[in-house]
């Protein structure tokens, strides 16, 4: 086993990974305690909020999300059961489903986004300027 110092590229990767894990854990904890949703749930709501009133096909959502199609489908199922999103047939392609925020989903997103942005501000600024 080598006792040499890690390469700069490895150190950079570990720094990025550490920042990501601290931030995502803080986000998940805060979103869960305030709103009963996880980070992936919020990220899905956040992506849908960017579409506004436009139709968002599940296929399009899958392309802009880092999650797999299967994981995203499960999240949308859970959000639909909670009354935060709705799914319906696409008006231009019967084979596609569109998904959008309900009024409850818009409110949840708006409220959760404040916490999300605060946590991002606090954790990312702390990572950029360690004590």
TrEMBL record:
* Residues annotated as domain HTH marR-type: 1-131
Task: Give a single Pfam family match.
Answer: MarR_2
Q: Which InterPro entries match?
A: HTH_MarR-typ, MarR/SlyA-like, Tscrpt_reg_MarR-type_CS, WH-like_DNA-bd_sf, WH_DNA-bd_sf
Q: Supply the alphabetized keyword list.
A: DNA-binding, Transcription, Transcription regulation
Q: Classify the source by domain of life.
A: Bacteria
Protein's UniProt name: MarR family transcriptional regulator
Naturally occurring in which organism (per UniProt)? Arthrobacter horti
């Amino acid at each position: 086993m080598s006792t040499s110092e890690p390469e700069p590229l490895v150190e950079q990767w570990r720094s990025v990974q550490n920042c990501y894990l601290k931030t995502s854990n803080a986000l998940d904890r805060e979103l869960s305690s305030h709103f009963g949703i996880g980070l992936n749930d919020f990220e899905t709501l956040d992506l849908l909020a960017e579409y506004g009133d436009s139709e968002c096909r599940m296929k399009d959502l899958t392309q802009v999300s880092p999650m797999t199609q299967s994981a995203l489908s499960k999240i949308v199922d859970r959000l639909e059961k909670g009354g935060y999103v709705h799914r319906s047939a696409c008006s231009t392609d019967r084979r596609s489903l569109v998904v959008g925020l309900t009024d409850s989903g818009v409110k949840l997103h708006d409220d959760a986004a404040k916490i999300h942005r605060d946590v991002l501000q606090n954790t990312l600024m702390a990572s950029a300027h360690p004590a």
